[in-house]
């Protein structure tokens, strides 16, 4: 804004010379690729659970699968990709979640969903009094490729 002219002033040549992606998804994907691999992986992991994820799910993934997520997720919060509300991590916009999810190949997504679902289901089986993760576990298993389950114990647990 130019105070002397009392109006907005812009440099059209400078605007035209900037490379701006044609769509939001491309822009967000390129922004995510600029983050460290740990943060990228954390965003991709979180994207498998939809728009928002309870911290209890993150705790299970960190403890049972040995995946380090919280520091990377906190960094993503500080950069505006995520918001943390109470005990939930949520994507700041549905297009951010979509961009992170689309960074995963179709087959890899199915493997991740299945791995996360089994981990959550095993945790639920260990804690007889706590079914809070059960619906999330079932959703992840349903989104995974069930034909890839080779462990007969996992098959029995899922069937029951």
**Helical percentage:** 55-70%
Q: What's the mean pLDDT score? A: 85
Strand content: 5-15%
The SS-based structural class is: mainly alpha
Instruction: Work out the helix count.
Output: 9
Describe the protein in words.
- This protein has 160 residues and is mostly helical.
- The protein contains nine helices and three strands; from the N terminus they run αααβααββαααα.
- A three-stranded antiparallel sheet has the order 1-3-2.
- α3 crosses α5.
- The longest helix has 21 residues.
- It is elongated and about 75 Å long.
Structure summarized in a few sentences:
With 160 residues, the protein is mainly α. It has helices spanning 12-17, 24-33, 37-47, 55-65, 70-78, 94-102, 106-126, 134-143, 152-159, and strands spanning 52-54, 82-85, 88-91.
């Amino acid at each position: 804004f130019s105070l002397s002219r009392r109006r907005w002033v812009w440099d059209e040549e400078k605007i035209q010379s900037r490379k701006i992606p044609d769509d939001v998804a491309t822009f967000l994907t390129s922004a995510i690729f600029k983050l460290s691999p740990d943060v990228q992986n954390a965003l991709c992991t979180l994207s498998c659970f939809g728009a928002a994820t309870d911290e209890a799910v993150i705790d299970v993934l960190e403890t049972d699968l040995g995946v380090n997520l919280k520091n990377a997720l906190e960094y993503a919060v500080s950069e505006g990709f995520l918001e943390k509300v109470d005990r939930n991590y949520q994507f700041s916009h549905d297009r951010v979640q979509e961009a992170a999810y689309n960074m995963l190949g179709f087959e890899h997504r199915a493997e991740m969903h299945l791995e996360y679902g089994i981990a959550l289901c095993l945790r639920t089986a260990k804690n007889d009094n706590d079914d809070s993760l059960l619906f999330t576990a079932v959703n992840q298993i349903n989104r995974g490729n069930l034909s890839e389950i080779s462990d007969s114990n996992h098959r029995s647990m899922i069937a029951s």
